[in-house]
Protein 1
Amino acid sequence: MSIDKPLHQLGLAEAARLIASGALTSEALVTACLGRIEAREAVLQAWSSIDPEHALAQARACDAGPPRGLLHGVPIGVKDVLDTFDMPTEMGSSIYKGLRPAWDASCVAMARAAGAVILGKTVTCEFAGMAPGATTNPHDASRTPGGSSSGSGAAVADFMVPLAFGTQTGGSVLRPASFCGVIGFKPTFGTYNRAGVKFAAESLDTIGLIARELDDLALMNAVLTNSAAIAPAFPQTRLRIGVCQTYLWHKAEPASRAALERSVSAARDAGAHVEEFVLPPPFSQLTETREILNNVERARSLAHEWTHHRSQISPALTRSVELGLATSDDQYRAALRLAEWCRLELDTMFNSVDVLLAPSANGEAPEGIAYAGDPSFQGLWTLLHVPTISLPAGKGPHGMPVGVQMIAPRYGDRKLLDAAHWLIARAGVHGQME
Amino acid sequence: MSIDKPLHQLGLAEAARLIASGALTSEALVTACLGRIEAREAVLQAWSSIDPEHALAQARACDAGPPRGLLHGVPIGVKDVLDTFDMPTEMGSSIYKGLRPAWDASCVAMARAAGAVILGKTVTCEFAGMAPGATTNPHDASRTPGGSSSGSGAAVADFMVPLAFGTQTGGSVLRPASFCGVIGFKPTFGTYNRAGVKFAAESLDTIGLIARELDDLALMNAVLTNSAAIAPAFPQTRLRIGVCQTYLWHKAEPASRAALERSVSAARDAGAHVEEFVLPPPFSQLTETREILNNVERARSLAHEWTHHRSQISPALTRSVELGLATSDDQYRAALRLAEWCRLELDTMFNSVDVLLAPSANGEAPEGIAYAGDPSFQGLWTLLHVPTISLPAGKGPHGMPVGVQMIAPRYGDRKLLDAAHWLIARAGVHGQME
């Protein structure tokens, strides 16, 4: 096999194949990624901790040993709310400066057991919330990369690493993917085991993936679900797409509306059945419902930090905890029940369509890095526990990436990856960074 | 207020009232509990770590300072799978000997913020699973106290501490409560925040409480749900009880059958409406379904330990991980879906009754301490995510305690505590240790 691009631009699956074939060493690949980081990190600030020697040592161990699994020798980034036994886990908070957990988070351990090199930890907003770090958008350093998986989005988009883990409680995987022009995937709630994750809000927190290529998500999905690696395939029947503007359509900027419309037209032209998909009235409470759960559960999960380290908690998170503490348990339980009702209703509504298309985010990445953007368009689906993916779908008026979001029913993760493959390959929605 | 019993026998709510009134100091209470431990721990082996000086320092700080909350000055025990920042958290595994987490688990932090003294950590089976520690049953040291919250059950039953935290993935709170003759309460899944819990199986793991008195559970429940403290009250309407033998009735020993029958008769005599409650056929798959989820999720949550410390994992847990790794993701997802279907079906079935009565466990605590007993009668309800409580309901042929289990619909936690109060006060089911 010959390699027709700079090594740091290789995708995860492609690199794994090259390493397995002997055409590439893990050390060469990791060296290339570290070189890219060396060149660009001063501007991007995507990594909260990275130790080149440790990364190279992992790579050399892969090269020296027998194949360990599907990810043998390929580097990945890990959002810094996921525990790693050999690197700090600081969670974007000064409270945990230098903390070294005793273990790897489940997803990190499973990736490592499959041969992955943990390249480093990527910058997260404070406790996967709203207060961002210093990361900038690779397309324009004056703009946010989105959050809270800020470093994972920026590092993947800037070709520093082919894939990175994120977590999504509101829109923390899909929004940075959309803003940075890469693919973000949040599986069905509960799919990737959460042992070793610092909880933000446990009824919402979902581990997800950011990558440049769909095959790479499918490969990592196989590893984290202990399944055979099967590349996405075209759906066997005509794809039925529901176009879901959602009750948030008034927040969609022209760039996001146009991206959705272009994607829908392309899908129709390529042969999909397309129909309008309207969420019934109770769904319009889901944004507020998600905020209730988020605030109450954050207040509880941060009870220790609230007692012992309150002065080190940001004003934004302080506000969230205070709102959570002021919410009655009855309100909290009512929010849980409404969310469950909507999940079951949506299950039924999916009888008439295979997947939905919806906006990924309000629009392009906003200017400045102090605000990581509005999580509404992603948070709705997070609360509904459905698998969802953001695909790059063109540029907005400022030349920044804009995404389109595809959603499948709960447990329809494979179906979602297949439909996304079809949308990219047959309907020509970009599906990867320009 | 005068105190009419030895201090170590005080309940949590009673002690909190006495401390608040000035009739008792935290130091005196903690000293009494430590004295009981000193006298009995050689036989019971209920504590994995306890530091009397540290416990007394917490007590003195309470006595010296302003009231902190509902639990001001009262001691509690904490199962050793729950993180504590000031004590080791070893999870019943030699892998984590001496581990000191950076934080308190959410429930520990919330209890501390309400004024509780963390007396020490209680013995758990290995990673809250099947391989027990050295704890013995306070009623007969040749018998198991049950598990995996072995130390919490034994310490509370032996009057070492008025209340202790446990976790239940199968039957790990209710079975030790039943075997030790105390009350075990597992709230609706997700009720007590799980930040800082080492996951066994995250779709099942539920933090629960073990105490000698119902009021004590209600008080701690208020603290952990950030609610006002309201003692259990009689239901306002005639209690409708469904008698549920379950598909496991063939496993119920005569002692458990008799305990259920006595409780039902007493409830009927006291005025409850009683009817038979039969679980539909799909429910009979729930024991196997729970095992699938347990094995798959344990295999994933222990991925780090499996890679790095496999020789320190017990044969029983090794078998569980191996079964989990051999289970396909499709089987796993089918198990999740069946469980959800049964939960919704049970919601509907609860239209005709307020609570169910069912066996707590197979029977009396088995002989020996190498096997912590069969989790089937508790695990069914754990998987269904419903709140459930085990009440002492007499003795078996060996003079060992036998319990009866009461179950309410999901989110009906308060209703359950009220119905249990009625059953104890009006129907005369013991409700506390003899």
Note: The CA atoms of residues 174 and 184 of chain A lie 5 Å apart.
Protein 2
Amino acid sequence: MTAGAETTTTAPARREIGVTELILRDAHQSLMATRMALEDMVDACADIDAAGYWSVECWGGATYDACIRFLNEDPWERLRTFRELMPNSRLQMLLRGQNLLGYRHYEDGVVDRFVEKSAENGMDVYRVFDALNDVRNVRHAIAAVRRVDKHAQGTICYTESPLHTVEGYVQMARDLMDLGCDSLCIKDMAALLKPQPAYDIVKAIKDDLGQDVRIHVHCHATTGVTLVSLMKAIEAGADVVDTAISSISLGPGHNPTESLVEMLDGTPYTTDLDGERLLRIKDHFATVRPRYTQFMSAITGVETEIFKSQIPGGMISNMESQLRQQGAGDRLKEVLEEVPRVRAVAGYPPLVTPSSQIVGTQAVFNVLMGPYKVLTAEFADLMLGYYGATLGERDPEIVEAARAQTKKEPIDVRPADLLQPEWDRLGAEANDLEGADGSDEDVLTYAMFPGVAPVFFAKRPEGPRNVGLDPAELAAGDQSEPAGKGPVKGPINYAVTLDGAEHHVTVERA
Amino acid sequence: MTAGAETTTTAPARREIGVTELILRDAHQSLMATRMALEDMVDACADIDAAGYWSVECWGGATYDACIRFLNEDPWERLRTFRELMPNSRLQMLLRGQNLLGYRHYEDGVVDRFVEKSAENGMDVYRVFDALNDVRNVRHAIAAVRRVDKHAQGTICYTESPLHTVEGYVQMARDLMDLGCDSLCIKDMAALLKPQPAYDIVKAIKDDLGQDVRIHVHCHATTGVTLVSLMKAIEAGADVVDTAISSISLGPGHNPTESLVEMLDGTPYTTDLDGERLLRIKDHFATVRPRYTQFMSAITGVETEIFKSQIPGGMISNMESQLRQQGAGDRLKEVLEEVPRVRAVAGYPPLVTPSSQIVGTQAVFNVLMGPYKVLTAEFADLMLGYYGATLGERDPEIVEAARAQTKKEPIDVRPADLLQPEWDRLGAEANDLEGADGSDEDVLTYAMFPGVAPVFFAKRPEGPRNVGLDPAELAAGDQSEPAGKGPVKGPINYAVTLDGAEHHVTVERA
């Protein structure tokens, strides 16, 4: 519209908002169980590289895990491929602080080695978070990133509780910047960040730490409100926001990149992304998407009830399956109501890998067996401080139960301080495995996924396996059509038992 | 979050934002081809009535049409049922100005009768629009609504063009308010209204006409940006916004009601809707939705390309089917590029029923047969002024072609001024039909849908027909699961009679 002369907002020179594209990591992790194969990404890389993104997120715990567990792909090879195909882009990863890409705390030497090797293989930007927001657990990783001269992004996991305040988040921002972070991220993994808190937190951090503190905002889309939150965060001064190309967006995924671009049209903000490139990226992944129909999230619309449970969308289906296995598929509602109580007992941790699984599973146990009759080993560790500190006090009675059950003492030091150097042992064990190539990268794979790595190393020579549908199959088949609409396209084989005798029958439309 | 003390926005007393719930009209029109039967709505009415909505949209051209064409339901009976089940709610309808719920201009006496009868049957709020934004075409309907003492809402169809400006919209708002409207609506039927123009237009109208001019904002969700637009419209002073309950929302439908509620949390605005009622409404329609899978829109994500063509989402599939029938299924892209050119030739009308169909079909003709080699009768009428005035000048060369082809002269008066009283003739014709009951309501049905009414009147005694899946069928079947996900659940037993002999056959996938 030609409204220039009529605009009632005083528009300064337009401020450029950076965009981190999530399609290569979190988008397919959230929407298709992290199953997308590298071969379905490579053809889009030239457009992604040239579209004008601030960074391209392309690596993290779940992608690494899925590569070796499901896709027989070497995650390091994937990283090197991205580096080669996107020479002009900042490659970005999500790092679980002292947990690296695994589920336990690693000794500092392993953290150093991981950061060195990933930087060497092409990583530029490290978004480092701790599931409990315990800054001690990200300190070493951030120092390691600084040492290799890469971009260290300190992360605040956003959550809500009676104890979480804007001032508390500002304090955490201060603590992270004191570690020498290049930028901050507000990470909203469950789409809980509403527009007003988004505005308030970004504004308060900028007011307190200075306008030149770079703030990134990462939101999921599950509750339907977070594109508005990105708008308010931008108005408050956010520098970079995370989105995913529209064809793999929304639901438990993220806000669409193209919608962000259009949203800013006419405002004092702009993305300067290349619309033609975005369209090509969109079309590419629209073509890829049907290959992974079988892995797609069942949630496609919005879910606002999660404001109560705070359970990330992807986890609810896990819980349902846990409950069904126990013959209690009808008790999901009770579990969702139990989750906030377990969270309170545990001192109000954010719910993100691994705390979401730990709290969620304990809630399932509480509902099935009675409150805290049995603690999971992980929940006991959480209560005893072995994952780090929580903002709130942990319920002393349950801490005592955890001590009694595990015979372990509560700790209040940084968990990794209790660890002994382990690199040499890990290396020796890894190099003994069939198919291990003796590289530090293989040692890291083994260190983080000791159960899966042996199988992966042995099978690696077979090469990548695409678990999506074959494009030819897809062209012939009806996978993208809802049942009842898609006609039977080809012959189907049946085992038919007729008056007690089994026959093999092939049926096709005559 | 307990951020009260930290809030950096100065919050005045919270302003209550009204909400119009669209589930009973536009939501299922946009997402399931208007096929929802009354019986699938009645159980939600008590909750809708008590949830605290400003109004409940429940009637319009497409619902009326679908009632008599597909559902064998009397639309007047549907209206009376809503009136009875929602005694505390404002019932709202969408009225196509002088076209009423049909596709031609009616003589003023018919307009009067329609408004009187609908008011008598329970309608409260009339949202009156003209597809060309020609205020002369809504004048009589608005006067009729005022005469029966109901709420007359004047509508601005939002579109973009080199001629459309904020000042132009303000002028139209002035013209509508001069007719005595109780409120204004900014109607964004194709999700083109971006946040900044939403803010600018609402603010400019309020600044010009006064803060107490009530402004409603209606947006579709297709492009993914319009919840942000509602936020900015509210910040600019909008009084009421339209949303649909989340289980039948998004895509070419609307923003989810629950997301709107959550979006305003902590802001100076509130909806005061009852969350428990919303949850029950959501759950009800989540159960209903799978019945209509076969009618569901293929678009579920966002489409930002429509910013260029401005074609409402629902129309693109119509065009595709027109093209396929002509063996030109691969030429959609050309047609979408032709649409803006046709719109320019026609003086930049908004694209909404019926102008969207008229412009869209001419674009198809232009692509298939060459530009303006053949004009559709409707496009010729549009060029000659028989639908009213457009903002821009219509291309004189094509006006001349329209005159030559149709032997009709261009007009510049209000089209209905050329019509003769027709109520008596319509009444006589209607009452001659088998099954007509002699009521004014039946005459109106015949007047607006002369082709369908005779069949409907004859079959009406058979009672409503639900074209959705039977709940029992649904419980047994796998209609809600995508193909490839929903396996045949187990062996199926058949009794098969083959050459006269009955066999018992068990079949399962081999």
Note: The radius of gyration of chain B is 24 Å.
